[in-house]
Design brief:
By secondary structure, the protein is an alpha/beta fold. It contains ten helices and 15 strands.
Length: 357
């Protein structure tokens, strides 16, 4: 068993940053050597979770002083490339950061090129698939009980920049990372375009995967309810249908299946917490750096595929046509296009009032 201890520096000490600090500190394979946040109180609170790690005024100062193995940053999607470049320039082995990989596909392509050229591993936080309900559903799918898979679907009420790459990632997880070939998408509403995760209020798409598998995604205020789950943010359903039955799992609940071989089976057991999803996500960082596993389940190449599907959804709405993959660069960011073409409307009330219920 490898007992090497990997050093970690964390930038951004808000809710997610504190979770990283707590979970890295709990794992004996890691030592946190630095924290940075423009809000000193946030950094102090994170430091208290991880044995009093040193606090720095900036990510650049932290990386130069500590030269960590792992650089983790927890920022909104508008801040990606400058922090990735800081990690690469300071010789880190792995960069762990929040989803999505980038806020536009032009930047995603640039990030991918930069880290691949430098040989730096990356992961994005699509860690929900570690939870027990996703693992149990995947076991049934992998057993062949559903027969030939012909459809995969995912939907949630959360808005696009928070959730679209999550949905794409879990769909790909359920169908063993089959590549997407094309996307047809549509969007509605501009209220969330000013959010710190700027998004259309609703986005939907049909995704054509290799082998004839059809994928369907919806995110936003018009997405179907998931009555099996009580809290709106956890109302995420992911499932597959095949020639012999179906399986689905809920982020905030359990799972269920009906197949020819199993009959109707289900469980209300479901996890959605740091110890069940963040802890194994972090432990697999050590295993990947050790060479024990060939790839981290949330590796950057997978994150690239996820953001490609998500941005193809927006491009389809923008250019009013089927979008073939792989994507190339376009003149400007997808969200800039949306800001120009989504009608300027002044609804009498917010389409997001349901969040207040």
């Amino acid at each position: 068993m490898n007992d090497k201890i990997y050093t970690v520096a964390i930038a951004g000490c808000g809710k997610r940053g504190k979770l990283y600090a707590d979970q890295f500190a709990k794992n004996p394979r890691f030592k946190i050597v630095g924290l940075a946040d423009p809000f000193k109180d946030a950094a102090v609170a994170a430091s208290q979770l991880c044995g009093g790690a040193e606090i720095f005024d900036s990510s650049e100062a932290m990386l130069k002083a500590t030269q960590p193995d792992i650089y983790s940053f927890c920022t909104p999607p508008s801040v990606r490339m400058p922090l990735i470049k800081l990690g690469v320039d300071n010789g880190v082995k792995l960069i762990a950061y929040e989803k999505p990989m980038a806020a536009n596909f032009n930047e995603a392509m640039d990030i991918r090129e930069l880290v691949n050229k430098a040989g730096v591993k990356t992961i994005q936080s699509h860690q929900r698939k570690y939870n027990v309900q996703f693992q149990e559903a995947k076991k049934i799918i992998d057993s062949g009980a559903c027969g030939r898979i012909n459809m995969v679907y995912a939907h949630c009420g959360g808005w696009f920049m928070h959730m679209a790459t999550h949905l794409a990632d879990y769909m790909r997880f359920f169908i063993n990372d089959v590549d997407a070939e094309y996307v047809i998408g549509q969007v509605d509403g501009r209220e969330k375009l000013t959010d710190n995760h700027p998004s259309p209020d609703y986005a939907c798409a049909m995704v054509g995967f290799k082998g004839g598998i059809r994928g369907y995604m919806e995110t936003g205020y018009l997405a179907p309810d998931v009555p099996e789950v009580d809290y709106w943010w956890r109302k995420v359903r992911v499932g597959v249908q095949g020639s012999d039955g179906f399986v689905e799992a809920y982020v905030g609940g359990g799972w269920r299946a009906v197949t020819k071989s199993t009959g109707a089976i289900s469980s209300t057991e479901g996890t959605w917490d740091g110890d069940h999803e963040q802890a194994p996500y972090i432990n697999d960082i050590a295993r990947w750096l050790d060479g024990e596993i060939a790839n981290h389940p949330c590796n950057g190449e997978g994150g690239y595929k996820d953001v490609e599907i998500a941005m193809a959804m927006l491009r389809s709405a923008i250019f009013r046509k089927k979008i073939d993959l792989p994507l190339g660069k376009i003149d400007k960011a997808e969200l800039d296009y949306l800001n120009e073409i989504i009608p300027q409307e002044s609804p009498e009330k917010s389409v997001w009032d349901f969040l207040k219920k």
